[in-house]
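pinning this so it doesn't scroll away 📌
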Amino acid sequence: MDEGKMDENEWVYHGEGNKSLVVAHAQRCVVLRFLKFHPNRNKASEEILQHLQNIVDFSKNVMKQFFGENYVHSGPKCGFIPFSSDVTQELKRKVCRYCMHQHLKVATGKWKQISKYCPLDLYSGNKQRMHFALKSLLQEAQNNLKIFKNGELIYGGKEARDSVADWSELAYHLKPFFFPSNGLASGPHCTRAVIRELVHVLTRVLLTSTDKSRLGTWRAVPNTQGPRACEASPFSRQLRCQGKNPPEHSGLPKGCLLYKTLQVQMLDMLDIDGLYPLYSRVERYLQDFPEQRKTLQIDGPYNESFYQKLLDLSTEDDGTLAYALTKVQQYRVAMTAKDCSIMITLSPCLQDESPGQRAVVPSSKSRLAFSVSVLDLDLKPYESIPHQYTLDGKIVSYYLKAVRAKDAAAVPPRFTGNEDCTLVLHKV
């Protein structure tokens, strides 16, 4: 790319997180990600270069080993409930962190209303639950769903407005992809049809394997561990109110990206409650021997030996530094997988086009070529673990407070001491 001819007006802001900012050039189909550093932290150019190299190495030498060649390209949240015996709050075994966190985010003004989306529904492998999860994401996208058309953001990435108007606009953009013959008139029926097709196609794509490598058989822990549904999920609550059992947990095909993502997430086998004492053990050692930080690979290099240590799935603490360090590194990788992004690219196939090497998914009236990638795979910082521990406690505490307040409001007031109460018994 000729830097001398670059025009800043040609670049479009796409979004940002705590660590980076993303811009795109629609004409050249190029995306640039800029790292953010705190203004008070002066970093030498060599230090920044090493940081960038660590990002590339971690993606290539670690995450690509877990996800496979087709899904990770070197330079949507946790899909299970904690099952560790170290969990201190029983509530965490019933309600997923995402659903609990929603209450705190709304209370602090980050979002206006609680989303109906629950990651456990998306990761269930059950099409009915996955459809509900994806529709919920479309209704309340927050910062968890964005849709681009030819590089231009057409949905998500902004405060929720009228969902009916938003869906109508989205259907207008996507209608040619799903109904190329223009057989549908405009209006609510057309909007519902397009959204239904979008949800069905996304579900099929997420359940399809495009990577046949041996890595798809890698499993962190058995899928039978932990509950299959979150009690706070509106889908589960609705079924309980109707006196129905939740639908069968179909499970995810082993080759699909959701399955692989879930397995890496489940490297967090101890939950933050069990992990934090081990982090403290490592931290005490580093305070006594700070020069060992590089030897312990806290900040890299993220090479083959780093990856091999992650495969130790033992959960029996022998009191050693090695055990604590392995669990800390596994937790960091798991948190990376919990916070990664999944990008699905769809493009229409002509009626007489042979797909060749491209993966294709059918919709009702068309065929769409697709690709799936996982992004945002920067390893979570070692220093963020205390923050995660504090935040976890705050999320659970606030959710318990909110649930108790809701339960108290639902209970009718009791009789006070000076009120009369008459009990009448009828013969049966």
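📌 and the second one:
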Amino acid sequence: MTESCFNKCVTNLNYRSLTQIEESCINGCAGKLIRTNHRLMGAYVQLMPAIVQKRLAEYERRAAEVAQAAPVPETAPASSLEVTSGAE
């Protein structure tokens, strides 16, 4: 924003201070960009909860698909396990 308004409004670099025309141009330019930023942030704040909710639902759906697709480990019945003693 600073560079954009400076390049647009400051035409004479021979003086340390801004002319009245340059100052009013910079105030208008900066004000316009700040108002635009506020409008964009307002739209972002309104839309972001819906976007987050949609992403969360998608992640949960994918997690459910992965859980269903994962093989269930089989457990052996207790009677088929062999118990070995240390002495043979």
